[in-house]
Amino acid sequence: MEYSRKLQLTGKSTLTISLPKDWIDSLGLKPGDIVKLTVRGSTLVLTPEARESGRKEYVLNVDVSVNAESLLREVISLYLAGYDAIKINFSSPLTHLKFYLKDNVRKKLLGLEVLDETAMSISLQCFAQYVDLPLMEALKKQADLALSMERDAITALLLDDKQLAEEVIQRDDEVDKLFYFITRQLNLAIERPRMLRDLEIGSEMACLSYAAITKSIERIADHAWSIASSSIMIEDKLDDEVKIEIEKLEENVRTIFKESIRILLVKDKNLANKIIEEARKVRDLYNEVFKKIISWKLSPKNASLIKTILEDLVRIADYSTDISEQVIFLTLT
What we know:
By secondary structure, the protein is of the alpha+beta class. Helices cover about 65% and strands about 15% of the residues. It contains twelve helices and eight strands.
């Protein structure tokens, strides 16, 4: 909704405008309340201070027809939207549903804990605050986890270590947990100018870039998960010549990913452009490596799995490019 107001002269030099009554009433504002004014270029943003510090609560009513995964998605959405307290009321005792929900909340949502539980309800509360794990620290931690997944997934493949591959698969939950937490931070920062300042983000537009970056890191971890899953299905040990070719591509991709994160931390657009150029060469290296590998005798199943693994590595380079592109945007805003 838009409003138009005419500037009024008060005294000799002070200009004032009146605030829309329906906006005032909807927020419950009264004389004496503090409203913060944030200048963003030619735009002036008004934010009631009470709204910044308010506790967000939500009550979710669930009946017997609800699907467990659907309920979890709703809880994740509420977490991402920045709700501090979520109470879930069940129409009847649904023990299996509560067990599934509690198990997945623990695995996926950082800081969200069961505060109270009865036969017919669960109360969840988020105790994690952005001051506990600042944005850049959380992004670096997420990237370090994704990098370790990628490196260990390839190690599991080359050493035929099925146990290590399983460990990599389990580690994906930790990356997802940080992705959800960072996304929650960014959504709240868009609502609360104070958080924008505290997180040193700068603007709502920058929030969108950081959201794209944490999503790219999460997708890189997914491809590492895929490599580990494929390695488990590989039949027999790979020949040394095949391993050498895979390592050649992997080392190149790992360097590009590591550099994209380093560039994110220092915000250097010139280095970001160099990484983007290096990442473009990965596709040619992939074609070279794949042609060599398929020229050797591999079972159809192994050939298909190796192709999938090589494609996963290429996608990791692509997402590293996406991170570098967002860094360029951040240096210009």
